[in-house]
Amino acid sequence: MTGALTARRPGTDPAPLPWLPLALTVALLGTAIAYPLSSGSARDAVSWTIVLLGSAVSVSHATISRGARTGAGLLVLVGVVAVLFEALGLSTGFPYGEYRYSDMLGPTLLGVPFLVPLAWLMMAWPSWVLAARLTSRVRPARRRAARVAGAAYVFAGWDVVLDPQLVQAGYWRWANPEPGLPGIPTVPLTNLAGWLLAGLVLMSLLDVLVERTSRLPRIGDAAPLLTLGWMVLGGALAHAAWLDLPGSAVWGVVLAVPVLAVLAVQARRGRR
């Protein structure tokens, strides 16, 4: 693998607008706090703003940290894969199960609202960045497979928290929501299987993209990691305290435990 995929300090050459991803992240976190405190059309506006800011965090961080080719490639790759998977799901029910979007999400492409690939973009880059960190000590021969699997796990786990919230908001509905994970009666298990499959495909392609286009990171990864942590764990808190979604709150914490455990072990080893 190239040096861009290994755990190193940011490059010494100056990055343009190094503050931009973190500034967008701060705006995203403030907007996310407003979600459970809003309702109706105001909540819809908050949802759009969260996704737009989250996708901007991903593209800006990939561009500033790894280079313009990586940022542009990320935007195109995730957009294409998201539309193809979602269009396939809408027309055949594979791989997620049968579902339909409401008109609340606005204009569509092949039946897929524009907001949806932007949501994938918000989720994909932080998932890959976290997986790269989690697998930085894996043997080089096994690192790519571990990184792709870890990124797909994080990607699908994020959706476990997000999907019940957006079903509750009325953005889409499942024809057959059961059986689902215990405590989540509105989303079928086929959706989780579909996200794992989509995640494996997307992260395999993204891994190749980063390997072929990325330079040595010029800024740290605080912005995408903070985005991911806040949206998953902060989302779980919002589900438990304000949105009456205790099942997805519990699952968000449960799925985060292995990730936090690996990070704790890495931190302990780093202090030795």
From TrEMBL:
InterPro entries: CruF-like. The lineage of its organism: Bacteria, Bacillati, Actinomycetota, Actinomycetes, Geodermatophilales. The chain crosses the membrane at residues 20-39, 71-90, 110-131, 152-172, 192-210, 222-242, 248-267. This is Membrane protein. The keyword Ribonucleoprotein does not apply. It holds the Pfam family Caroten_synth. It comes from Modestobacter marinus. Keywords: Membrane, Transmembrane, Transmembrane helix. It comes from the Bacteria.
